[in-house]
Amino acid sequence: MDFQEPEHITMIRDTVRRFVEAEMPRDAARKWDRENTFPRDIFDKLVALGLTGLTIDEEYGGSGRDIPATMVVIEELSRRSLAVSVPYIMSTCYAGMNLGECASEEQKRDLLPKVVAGEILFAYGWTEPDVGADLASVKTTAVRDGDELVINGSKRFCSGAAISDYIYALVRTGPADERYKNLSIVLIPPTTEGVSITGIDCMGMKGAATTDVSFSDVRVPAANIIGGEDGWNRGWDFIVGSGLDVEKLEVAAIALGLASAAFDDSWQYVQERKQFGKSVGSYQSTRHMLADMRTSLHSCRLMMMHAAWLAQQNKPCRLETSMTKLHICEAGKKIALDAQTILGAYGYAKDYDVERYVRDSLLMPIIGGSAAIQRNNITNWMNLPKK
């Protein structure tokens, strides 16, 4: 049993770390957070490294599907700023993986090379004002009108819609009482007439700002149905595919990056800060806290490696990805809060990055399937009787 990171992934990790230090300095990350802006120029430089092709087969211009490597890129970018790591997910995962698994051959040949080139970002249009985890209850509708679809409804917490090229929207395309059979996924350009985007001011995840989106008689070509004509009323099949398992890992990778950064900042702080004539790191309470943080990080990394490997091998992994998402996001939140405790008042000040790690970490157990949903999934998939 070999737990060493493969050489090519270590090379990717080192490449991203050098990129982060050169192109994403801490002052810039604070500015992106403060102004809630997406640094497109930095993203374009990231694209030039070829990292947006890690989920795409070579025949479409990518480097081949490599889930473990993709998670490493997300983790390393998230150590510094979600304003870059989340758009990377919007491109490489939301667009690249979903198109690769669900799109028609014509859609793949048209869109996937553009994903590799960094020209396409997807925002997920799934959640609605009255629909959270119960996605089969979506009320946004799409009706056929010749060669077009007419879309009406609304989406909530549609993160990154304002910077996306397409909203990857789950819509109802038949009677509501046939919940799972009458759903489709449609690509909706956010600049289309009838689309309205309103920002939601949130604590964290700045740069890919979350929004409300409304659709009022929005018309898009029927060719925008994911999967083509064969994808009509098959939206639920696409949602419950392997892409959903990997989405859980994407959020966990963000949480792992935030937790790693919080630990590193704490480690440096306790050696530099002195109180009562000695470093803060010499006090037992601080040392024990750091030991627990580091131990938790190790468990998180092992779970991520295992779950990403299962996904890469196309092995059943819905249980493992749910456990990984649950554990890393909950552990990451605690590590960030412990880092804030160690830094004291400095951990609460916006001039220090730990304050941002805390805000961003609080979101991770919520998005991509909440901690409660993951616990439900885990017990359900272990076949625990409900009676």
Brief rundown of the structure:
Helices cover 50% and strands 13% of the residues. The chain has 387 residues and is α+β, with helices and mostly antiparallel strands.
Structure notes:
The chain is α+β, with helices and mostly antiparallel strands and 387 residues long. It has 3 domains: 7-120, Orthogonal Bundle (Butyryl-Coa Dehydrogenase, subunit A, domain 1); 124-234, Beta Barrel (Butyryl-CoA Dehydrogenase, subunit A, domain 2); 241-381, Butyryl-CoA Dehydrogenase, subunit A, domain 3, CATH 1.20.140. Helix content is 50%, strand content 13%. The protein has 12 helices and 9 strands. It has a 4-stranded antiparallel sheet, with no helix packed on it. A 3-stranded mixed sheet has the order 1-4-5. A hairpin with a 2-residue loop joins strand 8 (274-275) and strand 9 (278-279). Helix 4 packs parallel to helix 8, helix 9 runs antiparallel to helix 10 (318-343) and helix 10 runs antiparallel to helix 11 (353-363). The longest helix is centred in the middle third of the chain and has 31 residues, at 242-272. The protein is globular. The two termini are 40 Å apart. The model has no long low-confidence stretch (mean pLDDT 94).
Notable traits:
387 residues, alpha+beta, Butyryl-Coa Dehydrogenase, subunit A, domain 1, Butyryl-CoA Dehydrogenase, subunit A, domain 2, Butyryl-CoA Dehydrogenase, subunit A, domain 3, 4-stranded antiparallel sheet, 3-stranded mixed sheet, 50% helix, 13% strand
